[in-house]
Write a structure and sequence with these properties.
The chain has a single domain (72-286), classed as MetI-like (MetI-like fold, Orthogonal Bundle), CATH 1.10.3720. 26% of the residues are buried. 75% of the residues lie in helices and 0% in strands. Helix 3 runs antiparallel to helix 9 and helix 7 (176-184) packs antiparallel against helix 8 (189-200). With 287 residues, the protein is mainly α. The chain starts with 14 loop residues before the first helix and ends with a helix.
């Protein structure tokens, strides 16, 4: 019995040319995407040091006057502090809700489980404008129209799904035998949760918490609908200022400081968790 000959595909005369051309096109495409994403940030950063009170690019001269003037603008610092407070509390609430929901959805089977999971994930799918209008209408019916508490509750609703997904990804990879071993050795369920389960879920909790904090801190739409005097987030204040007075160098300076704050936050994340691990947990949670 003769061996069956396997036909071999010969390389054509253009194969050697297609490879380098394809790589060059791919590299140019990646460069164009990076420029498209980073160009607005670079324009704002450069324009924030311009001598003119209005945005110009390229800037006419160099000055740090607009950054020093921010010290006298207490509204921005109050809004920044309010944004930090809301983001921190919303992150804490999202972690508490997300941990409980993720463990229930991962470890229990019950009628309506798929519908309940879809309900908790719906804030990611719904348009944020429709969600903001719905929350405003609902909160007005219960007498909590605007202010700190409505903003906190609304941000928690938006941020919790991200925590649920990342914690679910960690819970699916968790070895239940470790918890069973701790229980068999006499540990109480609460002790097992604190000493075994939570440390194993730490990557998902950290990734979800960081995502929740960033999403809450940068939220504009819901914050605009629920803003009140003395309870306005910094993104909402910037949007209102830009709508009323137009774009100016002071706003660019505030945006530059926000960019520096986010870069600092990313450095802390890289130090504590690692951006690659955080991205891996986020991608795994979306599957």
């Amino acid at each position: 019995m003769s061996d069956t000959a396997i036909p071999q595909i010969r390389s054509g005369p253009l194969d050697g040319l297609i490879g380098p051309v394809g790589r060059a096109i791919w590299g140019a495409l990646i460069l164009a995407i990076c420029v498209f994403i980073l160009a607005p940030i670079l324009v704002v950063l450069v324009a924030s040091v311009s001598r003119t009170p209005y945005l110009t690019f390229p800037p006419s001269g160099f000055t740090l006057r607009w950054f020093t003037d921010l010290v006298e603008l207490r509204d921005y610092f109050a809004a920044f502090q309010f944004s930090l407070l809301v983001a921190a509390l919303a992150t804490a609430m999202s972690l508490a809700i997300g941990l409980w929901v993720a463990l229930v959805l991962t470890r229990r089977d019950f009628p309506g489980k798929a519908a309940l999971s879809a309900l908790f994930m719906s804030p990611i799918i719904l348009p944020e404008l429709a969600l903001a209008l719905g929350l405003l209408q609902y909160l007005s019916q219960i007498g909590a129209v605007r202010g700190m508490l409505p903003t906190l509750l609304a941000h928690s609703v938006v941020c919790a799904p991200y925590v649920i997904r990342t914690v679910q990804a960690s819970a699916l990879r968790l070895d239940r035998n470790l918890e069973d071993s701790a229980l068999s050795l006499g540990a109480k369920p609460a002790r097992v949760l604190w000493d075994v389960t939570l440390p194993l879920l730490k990557p998902g909790l950290l990734s979800g918490g960081i995502m929740a904090f960033v999403i809450s801190f940068d939220n504009v739409t819901i914050s605009l609908f629920l803003a009140a005097p003395g309870a306005t987030t910094l993104p909402a204040l910037l949007f209102n200022q830009a709508s009323e007075t137009g774009l100016n160098t002071t706003l660019a300076a505030v945006c530059a400081m926000l960019t520096a704050f986010m870069l600092l936050l990313m450095l802390v994340v890289e130090r504590l968790v690692g951006l690659e691990r955080m991205a891996t947990s986020a991608v795994a949670g979306k599957r």
